[in-house]
């Protein structure tokens, strides 16, 4: 089984019950759970790990520079120096909050796939190392332990912006033509597996939900984290039982959240298109078989959710969802033209 990093204690009272406080709490709750490249020294040795750490720092430095440029570009047309500085600070804070919200969403996607069975009982999800997130554009890897013994990995790039996710779709199709995605520091979560190392030929997909529709998701998860802490410290049995009942209610609500239908539909649309584009491509035959199997897996998952009465509801108008579906339809039309 993969190495685990124990999370440190957090004080929920340090995080106010607010939109920002909830996001910060979700991120803090995951700190220490995410694998680090340091966990792979036994696999790769010191030289490879030290090089990866340097590479990671360089990539982050590049992102910092690009961040500064983006902020400057957003305020470049403001002539008044004082007003420009005020607006620059406002833009900078908004962009930082956006990045934190995206990190929180990555965390919740992994947790709900794993704990809420969003993608079925045979799906195992893991947050990638920060290195693979930055270098290879993979936020989450989902493994499927199928009945025939074949193990399939799906790499997921999580987004909160419709414009961003549209771009990621086309980038992933380029990856597919070049053999798929790779994760250099991967630790299998499938029971009985002790694999640690690099995986290649992974089907990459992008998933998204608009920021406005994620707020309730954040709020509920933060409430569950606070309840967990309160249950742990509660001494009175009656209070403990009341808190546990509320937690269980929220857990069931999370299991039935229609956000999972958004993601399932987004992934299914992409793997169907990927399979079609790889059909007959001899050098990518293995990828084609993986896409076909993922297609069947997600068709079965979707059917099971529908049998339970789950519906997209208002989320069928989610901007990120429409952007992904539209990008796939555009590529399909182009291929048939």
From TrEMBL:
The protein's superkingdom reads Bacteria
Q: What is this protein called?
A: Uncharacterized protein
Give the source species.
Candidatus Spechtbacteria bacterium RIFCSPHIGHO2_01_FULL_43_30
Q: What is the lineage of its organism?
A: Bacteria, Candidatus Spechtiibacteriota
């Amino acid at each position: 089984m993969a190495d685990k990093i124990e999370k440190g204690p957090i004080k929920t009272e340090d995080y106010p019950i607010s939109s920002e406080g909830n996001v910060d709490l979700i991120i803090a709750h995951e700190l220490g759970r995410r694998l680090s490249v340091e966990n792979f020294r036994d696999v790769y040795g010191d030289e490879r790990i030290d090089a990866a750490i340097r590479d990671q720092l360089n990539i982050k430095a590049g992102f910092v520079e690009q961040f500064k440029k983006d902020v400057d570009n957003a305020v470049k047309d403001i002539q008044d120096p004082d007003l420009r500085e005020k607006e620059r600070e406002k833009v900078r804070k908004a962009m930082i909050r956006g990045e934190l919200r995206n990190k929180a969403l990555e965390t919740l996607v992994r947790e709900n796939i794993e704990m809420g069975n969003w993608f079925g009982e045979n799906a195992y999800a893991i947050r990638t190392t920060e290195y693979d997130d930055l270098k290879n554009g993979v936020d989450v890897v989902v493994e499927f332990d199928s009945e025939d013994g074949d193990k399939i990995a799906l790499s997921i790039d999580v987004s909160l912006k419709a414009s961003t996710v549209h771009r990621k779709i086309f980038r992933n199709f380029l990856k597919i033509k070049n053999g798929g995605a790779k994760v250099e520091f991967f630790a299998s979560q499938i029971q009985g597996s002790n694999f640690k190392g690099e995986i290649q030929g992974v089907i990459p997909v992008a998933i998204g939900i608009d920021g406005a529709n994620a707020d309730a998701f954040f709020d509920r998860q933060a409430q569950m984290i606070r309840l967990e802490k309160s249950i742990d410290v509660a001494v009175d049995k009656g209070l403990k039982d009341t808190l546990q009942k509320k937690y269980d209610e929220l857990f069931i609500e999370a299991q039935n959240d229609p956000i999972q239908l958004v993601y399932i539909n987004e992934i299914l649309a992409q793997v169907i298109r990927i399979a079609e584009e790889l059909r007959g491509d001899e050098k990518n035959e293995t990828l084609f078989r993986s896409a076909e199997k993922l297609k069947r897996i997600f068709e079965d998952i979707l059917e099971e959710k529908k049998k339970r009465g789950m519906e997209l509801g208002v989320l069928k108008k989610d901007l990120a969802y429409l952007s992904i579906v539209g990008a796939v339809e555009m590529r399909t039309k182009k291929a048939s033209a």
